[in-house]
Structures are given as C-alpha cells and as structure tokens.
Amino acid sequence: MKPVRKAVFPVAGLGTRFLPATKAFAKELLPVVDRPLIQYAVDEAREAGIEQMIFVTGRGKVGLEDYFDIGFELETTMRARGKSLDLLEPTRMPPGSIASVRQQEPLGLGHAVWCAREIVGDEPFAVLLPDDLMVGKPGCVAQMVEAYNKVGGNIVCVQEVPRERTASYGVITPGSADGRLTEVKGLVEKPRPEDAPSNLAVVGRYILQPEIMRILEDKETGAGGEIQLTDAMAKLIGQQPFHGLTFEGERHDCGDKVGFVIANIALALKRDDVAPAVRAFIADL
C-alpha cells in the first residue's frame, strides 16, 4: 500500500458568488481572519504528511502561485524595518513542492481532478476543496490518512446533512460501520431528498486511488451536464475498498457569503488576539 504523498487542489472556479471581489483575484485567496482559504487547506495537507501540492488552476489564478512564492520586495522591506518574518513562514513552500496545471474548460470537478493525472502518476492522492474549511485537531486529511493506513483503498469525508439538502451533495449508501468509519456501498450525485440513500453527504476531502483517472478519461457527464467525480468514484465501489470517514471537527462551507461570514466569526472567536473585541461587538448587537 503506497503512502499518500500528493494532493490535488481544484482551484479553477471563477468565484462568481463573491463578485465583485473575485473579479481581481482568486476566491481561494479570500481571508478568513488573516489567512486565505488556500493557506488553511495547504496547512491541513502538510500536517497529514503531503509532500506535493498540485493546483488545478484557470485563467487569472497566478496569484495562488505567487502567494506561496518568496515575496522578495516585501521581505526586504520588513527586514529593513526590523519586523519579524514569522507570519510569512507558512507561505514559503520548498522548491518543487507546488505544481500547477490548467483546467482550460469548466467541465466539472471530475474533469479538474483528471487534469492532474500526469503529476499524480500511479500513486494514491488526496483531493482538497478549499471552499470547505475544516477545523480540527488533528486536521481532516490527517484523520483520513490515519484511516487509510488501516483500511487502504478510497476514503471520502462524510457529514450528516438535513435530508432536504441532499440535492446539493454526493450521498453515500452506507454499509457496515466501525466507529467513525463507514463502508460505502454506493454513491449518487445530488439526489432528491426522496431518492437519497442516506443523509451522509460527501464533503470536500477525498483520498483516491490512481485508477480513478482511467475512469475519468471517458469524460462521461452526469448531474448538471458536468464530469462528476462522484460518478467516477461509484465505479470503484466493489473493485477496491471504499469507506467514508465522519470528520471529528467543524466544517465551514465558505462557498457562499453566509458560510464565509460565519467562518470568520467562528475562527475569530478561537483567537486570543481578536476574540475579546469580537465578543464585545456581538454582545453590543
């Protein structure tokens, strides 16, 4: 069983829900308190032992690579003023640890993952959607890697959602359960509430075997006319071990404005430097 050393970050989306802000920069650079969404996701991957980050980008997304580069002018100015560079340390990635490929057409999440096939090669890999901000100790991917080292195969992060919201997610057909680990018997993308096999939804984190790339190669379209990652994963069920792990922690859906604002408040309240002022403001409201 090969270790999980690579992670794919599908970050080609236009971020239309956050216009006009995202007209000028990637939505993944929107800050939650003082760190952009992509930083939270990359830190989570690094904590889990991931060595190579693969960004699947689109036009206008060069800022993501610049963010993890050395900011020579900024660092020089800060040194000259006697300021510490500690806050910039997490943004400096070792040479070769970040690679990027282009998704030239918006054909779906499955297509975005397939675009990384040459860099992934024949290794298992993680997929992280930065819109899903996962807060926990250890982090979500670290919890999934721990489970992967026990059972192998494919693992998706699952969360119970209200049944009326199943049409917004991929939903699993659950099998036997062992603690937070649930066997996956089936997967369906965006089922209507009356058709959903459960209320366990797949959210934002995956560990997948490289064989999924050969399935995605066929470019079969599913819900919304897009190439769905869920549909490709469903074809691996029965051929390889497949489990869902219920994440022990908090998930914030930063894909829309309400979830993004809530994430800022929730994480601010965990910070000693800003929590007192935020609590005082909330109390005044």
Features:
alpha/beta, 28% helix, 25% strand
3D structure, described in words:
- The protein has 285 residues and is α/β, with parallel strands linked by helices.
- It has ten helices and 13 strands.
- The protein has helices at 37-47, 62-67, 72-80, 109-114, 117-120, 140-151, 212-216, 229-234, 257-268, 275-284; strands spanning 6-10, 31-32, 35-36, 52-57, 98-102, 125-128, 132-135, 154-160, 170-178, 181-189, 200-208, 242-246, 250-253.
- The chain has a five-stranded mixed beta barrel with strand order 8-11-9-10-12. A two-stranded antiparallel sheet has the order 2-3.
- The termini are far apart.
- The model has no long low-confidence stretch (mean pLDDT 92).
Give a summary of the structure in a few sentences.
With 285 residues, this protein is an alpha/beta fold. The chain is 28% helix and 25% strand. The protein has ten helices and 13 strands.
- Largest sheet entry: 5 strands, mixed, barrel
By secondary-structure content and strand pairing, the structural class works out as alpha/beta
Mean pLDDT: 92
Low-confidence stretches: none
